[in-house]
Design goal:
about 180 residues, alpha+beta, 5-stranded antiparallel β-barrel, 5 helices, 5 strands
Length: about 180
């Protein structure tokens, strides 16, 4: 489904169109990866309430809780097994090493710019290992109607934060 982010010239938005001016305060268009390997995306209008990361012997899981503009809770999970991480890291290492060898071969004694560029890129180890912003792994997205349903689906810390944000005003002016 295509989403038109602009108002048509006729004045009234077309059916199914999202208009940025209509977003409630603090909300924006959110695009999340879903499916095995995160090869697909799903979008909605909402805001991040909480995020939690759990690390175990088998892997790591990142859980994000969002509030949609219609008041539903969106639970986004990313799960990565350590064995997948090891394989991806090994592949990324070989790619980066090959890039370095190519940069070294293409430079002469007076021009170190290809090597300097490679070293600068090395500082961002996440990108170098192919992790990027969202990393990799398996991604799921669930929609939950109430805080009671949310409690059993997310870690306790993520639930406490989400419940607090929903129950209390975002900012408060104190007359003290």
């Amino acid at each position: 489904m295509d989403i038109d982010m602009q108002k048509p010239e006729g004045g009234e938005p077309t059916r199914g169109a999202l208009v940025t001016q209509d977003f409630p305060e603090g909300m924006s268009r959110i695009e999340l990866r879903v499916g095995p390997g995160g090869g697909r995306t799903q979008t909605f209008v909402g805001r991040l309430l909480s995020e939690s990361q759990q690390v175990t012997k088998v892997g790591t899981e990142v859980v994000g809780v969002y509030l949609s503009r219609k008041g539903k809770f969106v639970v986004h999970r990313q799960y990565v097994e350590w064995s997948d991480f090891q394989q991806a890291t090994k592949q990324a290492y070989h790619t980066v090493r090959a890039d370095f060898v190519t940069a070294r071969r293409n430079s002469d004694q007076s021009d170190f710019s290809p090597i300097t560029h490679w070293v600068k890129e090395f500082k961002n180890w996440r990108e170098m290992l192919g992790l990027g912003k969202d990393g990799y792994g398996d991604f799921t997205l669930d929609i939950v109607d109430s805080l009671d349903e949310l409690r059993s689906r997310v870690p306790a810390k993520a639930f406490r934060i989400a419940a607090d944000v929903v129950s209390n005003p975002a900012s408060q002016d104190l007359d003290i």
